[in-house]
Amino acid sequence: MPPEATAPDAALAAEGLVKHYGPTIAVAGLDLVVRPGEVVGLLGPNGAGKTTALRMLAGILRPTQGRVRIGGIDMAERPLEAKALIGFLSGDTQLYQRLSPRETLQYFGRLHGLPEAALGARIDDLVRDLEMASFADRPSATLSAGQKQRANIARAFLHGPSVLILDEPTNALDVLSGRFIVESIRKERAKGRAILFSTHIMSEAEYLCDRIALIHEGRIVDEGEVPALCARAGDAKNLTDAFLYHVERGAPRADGASPGGAA
Ligand SMILES: Nc1ncnc2c1ncn2[C@@H]1O[C@H](COP(=O)(O)OP(=O)(O)OP(=O)(O)O)[C@@H](O)[C@H]1O
């Protein structure tokens, strides 16, 4: 059954998403739903297909097959309307080197069509909430990796999107900055945003996520709340063990056999 048939309240719904890069099958049939006020984590080993999946969900990459709906709007049929509902943080987002974070936010706010007075107030709020005051007016070229990441996150939050898609939002951040970003994501959830993010940090996923989707070789091998995931992964004692169980076992084959050979 299509995911949105079982979740009519979905803010984000993917149905049968597939992506081929030549002979490489990066995503091999992904179904996923995220509801308003929910954080879903996409976890998988390197090369599992997380970035490819998130880019298709954000409308940056065209799927080979399958469908994405954002707030019920079909991404292929009405891409501008669907994308307007999304804040996307890509793993390789670059800031314009000569612009400060404040100027960058002004630029993207205008592209989003935010009225000038409201935009100024919104940027002030983001600078305060993301603790960017000490560097908001410096050229981006002079910022540290963590400062740049805060500015990129501010850009994703800027237009108050109902769906946030964040590819490794705490990548390369120290523990303090990482925790700060995680708390910022929790605040966005409290505002009713639907949030999908990828990470390699298991503790972060356990702390932040309402549900976790484990992806391996382009397929979701299990999905649910952490205790249920652990129970289904041979009574794994934590998320790391559940993750390793699935990776070592391998992704299910089309014929239903387990390629890893384990139970
Ligand atoms: N532009 C591309 N052209 C060809 N193959 C690609 C391209 N982008 C990704 N791939 C391949 O698709 C597969 C999935 O890659 P993807 O970047 O989605 O994985 P990932 O789960 O995000 O990995 P990581 O955790 O290392 O960032 C990999 O085998 C990768 O080599």
From TrEMBL:
<keyword id="KW-0067">ATP-binding</keyword>
<protein>
    <submittedName>
        <fullName>ABC transporter ATP-binding protein</fullName>
    </submittedName>
</protein>
<comment type="similarity">
    <text>Belongs to the ABC transporter superfamily.</text>
</comment>
<dbReference type="InterPro" id="IPR003593">
    <property type="entry name" value="AAA+_ATPase"/>
</dbReference>
<dbReference type="Pfam" id="PF00005">
    <property type="entry name" value="ABC_tran"/>
</dbReference>
<dbReference type="InterPro" id="IPR017871">
    <property type="entry name" value="ABC_transporter-like_CS"/>
</dbReference>
<keyword id="KW-0547">Nucleotide-binding</keyword>
<keyword id="KW-0536">Nodulation</keyword>
<feature type="domain" description="ABC transporter">
    <location>
        <begin position="12"/>
        <end position="242"/>
    </location>
</feature>
<dbReference type="InterPro" id="IPR050763">
    <property type="entry name" value="ABC_transporter_ATP-binding"/>
</dbReference>
<dbReference type="GO" id="GO:0005524">
    <property type="term" value="F:ATP binding"/>
</dbReference>
<keyword id="KW-0813">Transport</keyword>
<dbReference type="InterPro" id="IPR003439">
    <property type="entry name" value="ABC_transporter-like_ATP-bd"/>
</dbReference>
<dbReference type="InterPro" id="IPR027417">
    <property type="entry name" value="P-loop_NTPase"/>
</dbReference>
